[in-house]
């Protein structure tokens, strides 16, 4: 009889702890996970920080101002012209290193 009473006592204790866990989860807003499987509750609880990260970086004037883009393009073309005068510019189409290799 004591073996049956011990089993019953364990069953009641398990039910009481399970009920207490459910009540605790309901009161404190915790996610109940009795099986112990992986869940994304930790990630979903986190605060979303994308807007704060976007606000940290300053506004990029280059994207919207055509004068800035035109000045940069002018600087690029002048640098390219200077390189071409020294013979360091890019080769004409079809006269690069790969084309020379292919023709040999």
UniProtKB/TrEMBL annotation:
Cell location: Mitochondrion
Name this polypeptide is given: Small ribosomal subunit protein mS33
One GO cellular component this record assigns the protein to is: ribosome
Q: What is the lineage of its organism?
A: Eukaryota, Viridiplantae, Streptophyta, Embryophyta, Tracheophyta
Q: Which UniProt keywords apply?
A: Mitochondrion, Ribonucleoprotein, Ribosomal protein
Which family is annotated? Belongs to the mitochondrion-specific ribosomal protein mS33 family.
Predominant cellular place of this UniProt entry's protein:
mitochondrion
Region (Disordered): which ranges? Answer: 78-104
Top-level taxon? Eukaryota
User: Compositionally biased, Basic residues: which spans?
Assistant: 85-104
Q: Name one Pfam family in it.
A: MRP-S33
């Amino acid at each position: 009889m004591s073996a049956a009473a011990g089993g019953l006592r364990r069953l009641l204790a398990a039910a009481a702890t399970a009920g207490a866990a459910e009540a605790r989860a309901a009161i404190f807003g915790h996610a109940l996970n009795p099986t112990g499987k992986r869940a994304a509750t930790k990630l979903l609880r986190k605060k979303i920080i994308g807007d704060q990260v976007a606000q940290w970086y300053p506004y990029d004037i280059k994207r919207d101002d055509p004068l800035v883009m035109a000045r940069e393009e002018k600087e690029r073309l002048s640098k390219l012209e200077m390189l071409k005068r020294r013979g360091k510019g890019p080769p004409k189409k079809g006269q690069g290193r790969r084309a020379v290799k292919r023709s040999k």
